[in-house]
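FIELD: query
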Amino acid sequence: MVNRHEEIAFELAEASSVMCIGALDTGKTTMARRLIETALAQNRSVGYVDSDIGNSSLGPPACVSLRVFRRSADLPRQFDSVSEPDALHFVGGISPERLVLQQVTATAALVEQARSEADMVVMDTSPMIAGVVGETLKYHKMELCRPEAVVALQRGGELEPVIGMIRRFFGGNVHTAPVEPEVRPSSPDERMGRRAERIMAAFAPPLDKWRVRTTVFAPTLPSGLDPSRLDGLLVGVHDTDGRCQGLGRLEVDDGNLKVLTNRGEGMQGLRLGSLRLDLGRGDVRPVNLRELMFGL
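FIELD: result
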């Protein structure tokens, strides 16, 4: 017997773009994969945009990632085994709070790229769905990404305010489904462990330290800033076209500011993140950039 999730995947197999929304541990990534598998089986190429910056399934945390799948054989059993995304956009944090603008623009940019390269775009999203931040995030993602359809996965009625907003403001074609019984809630330790694994993968050897000038950063460093305040800060490594090539970690060595990265070739600029990284454990903790740079 075909369940509701399979029905939705078949109903949307010809859609141009689909956004999956839901709270934590509701099966969004599993639903996204089902949509991708169904479309690939019909010989359609699919661009998968992973915008869950806290627990990414495709690229590293603190980034929005894109991978284009052209054949069923391209799709691994687990997204975690995808060797490398086709494109990255650095957001710089693992929670959308304070980073709504960065996350929305990063997602919209990769959706636009995916539309130019694939027949269908499938968007996975963060679990933040409630309150001012959650609804603002989903509103602006809808506004800029304009998905043809939305798949809303919920346990009870927790998504009804967001669903109502989508239908009211965007005339949204929303397909609702309950959470599948086999979806197992993950513990905070499990989520932290997965995040640490993804971070460590992003810093896989060979790693090099590159001395960097204080003029290569966005946002620009204030004059006279003590470099030690930036020690351990996560950065996005960007090329001359503004594309994010990967992650780096700032380190201070004998008063010199350096970046530790495996993406140094072609590096032209560094975007400051809002996380301090303990590379030994793959652990991150949030920092307030404004406070860090200006003491405010």
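FIELD: remark
The chain has two domains: 8-184, 203-294.
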